[in-house]
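discrete fold record:
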Amino acid sequence: MWRLALRTLKFRRTSFVATFLAMFLGAAIVIGCGGLMETGVRMAADPQRLREAPIVVTGEQTHDSTALTERHRIDPGLVGRVAEVRGVRAAVGDVSVPATVLKDGKPVSGKADSYGHGWASARLTPYTLAAGSPPVTGGEAVLDADLARRAGARPGSTVDVVVQGTVRRFQVSGIAEQRGDHNPDAAVFFTDDEARTLAGGRIDSIGVLPNAGTGTAALADAVRAAVGDRAEVLTGERRGLAELPGTLSSKRTVVILAAVFGSSVVLIVMFGVASTLGLSLQQRAREMALLRAVGSTPHQLRRMILTETAVLSVASVLLALLPGYAIGRLLFGVLTASGVVSSAIVYHAGWIPMAVGAVVTVLAAAGATRFAGRRAARTEPVAALAESTAGTRWFSVPRLLLALFFLANGIGLAVATATVMEDGPTLASTAGPASVLFCIGLALLAPGITKAMVALLRLPVRALSGLSGRLALRNAATANVRMAGAVAPIVLLIGIATGTLYMQSTEDHVSRTSYDRNILADYVLDSTTGGFAPGVVDRVRATPGVAAASEFVTSRGFVDRPGGPAQIDLRGVSAEGVRQSLDLSVVAGSLSGLRGDTVALSDKKAREYGVRVGDRLPMHLGDGAAVRPTVVALYTDNPKQQYLTLPAAALAPHTGDGLPHQILVRAARGSAAEVHDRLAALAARVPGTELDDSASLAGRNNQIQQILVSANYTIVAMIVGYAAITVVNTLVSVTRKRRAEFGLQRLTGATRAQVLGMLTVEGLLIGVIATILGTIASATTIVPYSLVKSDSYLPSGSIGVYLAIVGGSLLLVFGATLLPSWRGMRSPAVDTVKAA
């Protein structure tokens, strides 16, 4: 049986190459998505500054199993407790605070960020003194060599450093150089006491250095017992997470992205492999009939087909391992370039995604073999010979049930998107797969649908296309299964591409316009040196022509409720300028009361949380701090901009830098131009301050909201590319199989032009039917998503996107049919018929 299967593969190269290509590419894409999933689940990062410490103690970065978005700092008293653990040689507390060195009043160019640390933590990187001495007093500092060179500093000179939003002058006591090829951010070292004071009295992490001969695992367990639930102990490649506060919050994003697209890819790959292999077996129906006629049993035929499939599956999976790893790296590179995850996160692709890719490919092939080869193996020899010439039987109860299963699930996800899901980051996880499932359901019923639609198109085609149209209609009527095989992958291509691209364009439009309407300010001041000191906003308010100014802080926190914490966006503002800066229509209370331990929220959220004006709202801020602010105002709910509003002075200390990074400015009527010039002059006097109009703030918010755009487009491009390859495989295989048919037509008097005209009409029929079905399938994603996002049945975005998708699909159809046919008809018709 193995010998027969291998000889069959040798002499059926065209159809088997198409099947192999579908398996190979499918396995590679699934392996790539699996690697992305494994990376998200592990979420590990190589340490940079703390790489000399095999054990790192840091604040717990989760609240009730949900990742925090800000750094959770720990009590400095833990340093002494960790140092007392047996086997610990030294416990070194570490802090990181923004510290921007100035030269001629401007931030030193070079590395994007610079941070201040205590000198004791220098050995964790490690840094060593190249010149001078360590800092001893609060007015001294050590600069790393690169920063000192750019600032023109040397031991004994002075430099201006922006810390806590204020310019302070320090004497350079020394220059430090780091060992190794790592490249952490630029560093300024203060005394340990000064660094902790700047960090608000708490520390970020503790680097643990063990005694010689002490095992890391055993010591880590001892340290965990010592700190209890007051901190988290990290070892190995997870130590880097201590340097990347908020990174764990991207874990959910990466996992959801990999899961949503991975599941879609699995379905598409299984469909692509099954349809390609099924088409190959269908084209071999006469061969199977002859084998049955000469005495082969159904069992022998099934064994032969399974053996062929096994050979192709194993070969395609083995060859797909390296390309699959490369695809995963490419997807991960897009995520890091987009800012979804830090570039310090380690990409992992172990044996699990490899195994998943192999299993999916083998199962898809085995399933296709079972269903497509069953009829050829079971049909009686005489009936098989008759069926091989017609090839019109397609309906079966299992096929119908499977189609109804996919259609029902697609419709179910669409309904859930429109009626159950709220507007949020997981909305796409139900909307996106809906069109995929519906496409597969339509594809399974494609022979019957195609036959019905050809009947509806008969009159216009006959009226417009003459003899070529009549020939095409006859072929479509007698070979509807063959035509459906060409329609199905194009439906998948159009449905997925249209649904996903318009879903993204709708998200872009809604996010941009809703934020624009919510921001009433004319200008925004932006700090690039760690934030604004409290007095800066008062100076802005005192500027002639300024009607109002408000500090602006963004973060994410949690509202504690009986069913579990609800994560929500937080905004910090100034009570003096919030009404002129943000569009908040107050329905109860007053925003002027946003001072101290207070909060304002929408009336809808107030009902959801069960609070009124005067009640306390139990919350946890982005760094895990528990608070119970008093509700002082309720405002009209905006479903596109849902957030809680707190005083900037209360929220900012619980963010990474501890200060507001933006100031929103509203100009008095008729004085916008004068205010711009005066603010520009003010910005020039505050180091690291940039002035722009409020549209830039909306643009940055849109960038944050749409940070997955490039990743979405990359993965969609892979899916659409795979579907396009399936289209080409299918059409080329079908066209090559029909060479004898074209030869007979030419021998009976048809010209090459007439044959090509017939194929053109067939291509148009395929394109029209696939476009209609693909558009219907895409509506299961577009319509519910648009209803939730913009209260409209129609998506946002240019009609050109849809026309490009349809036009590209038609080009694939004509390119994959006309080109092989034209090349095949260069040979004499007699030779073509004889070769068959």
About this structure: The longest strand covers residues 546-559. The longest helix spans residues 298-338.
